[in-house]
């Protein structure tokens, strides 16, 4: 079973990966064909020092070199039909979009790096992500009050549950945070555990 193509009109704003993925997740969840065949997840990638190393990123100063992000966000599709592959959508990768999970993880996260740059992965079911996420973009503010990168053209995002609770910003505390504590969403796994879980999922 082939994954859905990245919609041609998918909004994209450089340095706002969480919002790019949020809107893509929203699109897939409202597409009955996609949501009936695939389980959809938002995946937040970070670590306690907020220095994760990714290869194959468009922002690399030298093609093929590493980029160190404070965090990164991608979308994961898991098939409901056994034997089908899982897929990653990363707006900032030089790999295909979508890319098979195995290829993406093998090419984007190389082994034998120091612990400071090792990634953790917070896996969040799509509906929970869409309902509870909120960002007022304050994490992008510089000391002079200006944003470090031009913002998207649309207003800041707050999901329906977040809005009902009066929440305007939980990006860093509930999603990027890699601690397993109250107030966060989804499950945090290491790279090897994620690879194992994806292989198990598609072969059961």
Kindly provide the name of the CATH class of the domain at 17-128 and 184-197. Alpha Beta
Q: Which geometry do the CA atoms define?
A: globular
What is the subunit organization of this protein? single chain
The spatial strand order of the largest sheet comes to 6-5-4-1-7-10
Helicity level: 25-40%
**Rg of Cα set:** 16 Å
> Judging by the overall fold, what is the CATH architecture of the domain at 17-128 and 184-197?
Roll
**Strand tally:** 10
CATH superfamily of the domain at 17-128 and 184-197: Protein N-terminal glutamine amidohydrolase, alpha beta roll
Contiguous low-pLDDT stretches (5 residues minimum) are none
Instruction: Write the CATH fold name of the domain at 17-128 and 184-197.
Output: C8orf32 fold
By secondary-structure content and strand pairing, the structural class works out as alpha+beta
Roughly how many Å apart are the termini?
Answer: 15 Å
Strand content: 15-25%
Average pLDDT confidence is 95
H-E string: HHEEEEEEHEHEEHHEH
In this structure, how is the largest beta sheet organized?
6 strands, antiparallel
Number of helical stretches of at least 4 residues: 7
Description:
Helix 1 crosses helix 4. 28% of the residues lie in helices and 21% in strands. The chain has a domain at 17-128 and 184-197: Protein N-terminal glutamine amidohydrolase, alpha beta roll (C8orf32 fold), CATH 3.10.620. The chain has helices at 17-29, 32-37, 101-108, 126-132, 160-164, 171-176, 191-203; strands at 38-46, 52-54, 67-69, 72-79, 87-89, 99-100, 120-125, 134-135, 157-158, 187-190. With 204 residues, the protein is α+β, with helices and mostly antiparallel strands.
């Amino acid at each position: 079973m082939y994954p859905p193509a990245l919609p041609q009109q998918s909004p994209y704003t450089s340095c706002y990966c969480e919002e790019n993925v949020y809107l893509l997740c929203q699109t897939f969840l409202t597409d009955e064909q996609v949501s009936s065949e695939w389980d959809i997840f938002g995946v937040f990638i970070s670590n306690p020092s907020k220095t994760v190393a990714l290869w194959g990123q468009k922002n690399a100063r030298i093609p093929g070199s590493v980029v160190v992000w404070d965090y990164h966000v991608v979308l994961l599709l898991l098939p409901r039909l056994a034997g089908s592959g899982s897929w990653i959508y990363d707006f900032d990768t030089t790999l295909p979009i979508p890319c098979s999970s195995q290829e993406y993880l093998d090419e984007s996260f190389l082994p034998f790096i120091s612990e400071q740059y090792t990634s953790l992965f917070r896996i969040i079911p799509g509906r929970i992500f869409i309902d509870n996420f909120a960002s007022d973009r304050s994490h992008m503010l510089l000391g002079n009050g200006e944003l470090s990168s031009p913002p998207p053209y649309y207003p800041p995002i707050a999901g329906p549950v977040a809005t009902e609770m009066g929440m305007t910003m939980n990006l860093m505390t509930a999603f990027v945070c890699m601690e397993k504590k109250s107030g966060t969403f989804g499950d945090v796994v290491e790279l090897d555990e994620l690879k194992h879980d994806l292989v198990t999922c598609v072969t059961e």
